[in-house]
Amino acid sequence: MVLNNNENVSFTQNYSDGVLENLASGRNGSDGSVKWLSTELEPNLTENLLSRWLAPGGEPCRESRTVEIVILGLDGGDYFETDLSGEAWKSRPLVRDFRNGHFLGLKFSPWRLFLINNYESFESSLLRVVLDCQRLELVKNLISIEIFGLGRWTRHAKNDGCQISNDGWYRCLAPDFPCQSPWCSGSLGMLESNGWVYSNHCSFRLFSADSAWNCLKNRWVFFRGDSNHVDTIRNTLNFVLDLPQISSVPRWFDLNFSNLKDASQTVRITSVFNGHWNETMNYEGFNSLNDEGFRSLLKKYFSEDTVPDTIIMNSGLHDAVHWRNLRAYSEGAGYAPSFWKEVMDSVRQRGLAVPRIFYRTTIATGGYARSLAFNPNKMEAFNWVALDKFRRAGLVSGVIDNFDMTFPWHFDNRCNDGVHYGRPPTKMKWRDGEIGSRAA
To answer: What distance in Å separates the CA atoms of residue 180 and residue 44, rounded to the nearest whole number?
Structure first.
């Protein structure tokens, strides 16, 4: 799903758990599927998006000024952020795209056009909103926005007295506090989340350190992504592999980590930052592959006697600053899969098992960063274009939807600093003046 772009308008609504369960499980197909919702990428996604973005006219509403587009009872444009949440549930409702809106969110300087209107207590009228404009009535049956939750955050406990400790840890529950079926299995207390856990379609498994080491022993995982990847690696080492003494990892490294309880169990983790071919710099993204030395560095890791078992790849926030428009980004994102296909073909020709590639979508930036060049509107579009390119090259084994995972937490800076969600909490005030935490 690619959303049309304009001003961000946030709707906030608290639903009871019963309403949420009914909404999230709502089906209207004979096989139990939701007819209007698809997890498949549309054919020719990039070309269709570019065509709509470049079209001089298009649907009558496309060239309307924002102030001329009206949702009865509200004001705003045609990129909508919806916050469907309560005390025990958070989800990212999808907004149905009629492909007749503006693309202002893809501009290089969107903050000049950015406006947030927060509507509290919008009641169930969200399900029967009428979108109207001067020259075209878009809706027939009074339904223009449909809602369905993909992944969801559910809360299974809460420690109201939980505080960040002096050493920076935010542990709120007993280490063996169990997660509840069907949402997840394992110990919820191992997370710094004060009872929240994310699950997508199926139950989310929280690995114990023993089971995680049994899974990863003697394996090689290759990370290629932005600084959120770096945070993920550190958090995996701290929380999943029970190595809390590792307080940070650099942008670039290639290291073996050992199980403190069984030195025979090791995992090799390689991280190569994608923001720039110089590890100290930023805002190149996919364009970093234009540097010959950087390409050679990446190829080196796949020219050894053994190669990584798994690649977890990401690009996005840095691309949003480098590529000044959608057409340029589409070209830049097109070179990346051709490079990686060449690398994978070289592995295959040497008779080695080709690594599985998982693409991790870029986060939904939070708080102040929602209006910048890497605003959520642009990042969702860039995510789909990148996935489209890698899919056509036959490279993607699976997708980790980090955009969906972070979206319910991105409306302010309570759980992020704007562009990071996994940084270790510290006893320092964040941008909103309060003590920050990852997912409190």
So the answer is: 41
Q: Which residue has the tokens 């005030």?
A: 429
Structure tokens at 321: 């600053």
312 vs 315: CA distance, rounded Å: 11
Q: Using alpha carbons, select from 370, 369, 404 the residue that is nearest to residue 384.
A: 404
The answer to whether 247 and 254 have CB atoms below 8 angstroms apart is no
Which pLDDT value is given to residue 403?
A: 92
Cα separation, 275 vs 282, in Å, equals 5
Q: Is 129 left (phi over 0), alpha (psi -120 to 50) or beta?
A: beta
Distance CA 336, CA 339 (A): 5
Q: For residue 260, which of 237, 236, 234, 287 has the smallest C-alpha distance?
A: 237
CB-based contact 302:310 (threshold 8 Å): no
Domains of the chain: residue spans and CATH: 8-151 (no CATH), 209-409 (3.40.50)
What whole-number distance in Å separates Cα of residue 42 and Cα of residue 44? 6
Q: β-pairing, 74-75 with 70-71?
A: antiparallel
pLDDT, one tens digit per residue, over 216-237 is 999 999 999 999 999 999 999 9
Q: Which two tokens stand for residue 93?
A: 């409702």
H helix or E strand, kind and range, residue 338: helix 326-349
pLDDT tens string 294-308: 999 999 999 999 999
pLDDT digits (tens, 9 = 90+) for 355-402: 999 999 999 999 889 889 999 888 988 998 999 999 999 999 888 889
In this structure, what are the phi and psi dihedrals at residue 270, rounded to the nearest 5 degrees? -120, 135
Contacts of 87 (CB under 8 A, 6+ apart): 14, 155
Q: Tell me the C-alpha distance between 321 and 365, whole Å.
A: 13
Can you tell me the distance from the alpha carbon of 183 to that of 185, in angstroms, rounded to the nearest whole number?
7
Question: Which has more confidence, 171 or 120?
Answer: 171
pLDDT category at 124 given cuts 50, 70, 90 is very low
b/e 286-314 (16+ beta carbons within 10 angstroms → b)? bbbbeeeebbeebeebbeeeebbbbbbbb
Residue 358, helix vs strand vs coil: strand
> Nearest to residue 412, comparing CAs of 349, 370, 357, 359?
370
Q: Of 4, 52, 384, 422, whose CA–CA distance to 232 is shortest?
A: 422
Task: Report the C-alpha gap between 398 and 117 in whole angstroms.
Answer: 36
The CA-CA-CA angle for residues 223, 229, 235, to 5°, reads 110
Token pair 């542990």 in the structure block, residue: 171
Q: Locate tokens 């945070």: which residue?
A: 231
SS3 323: coil
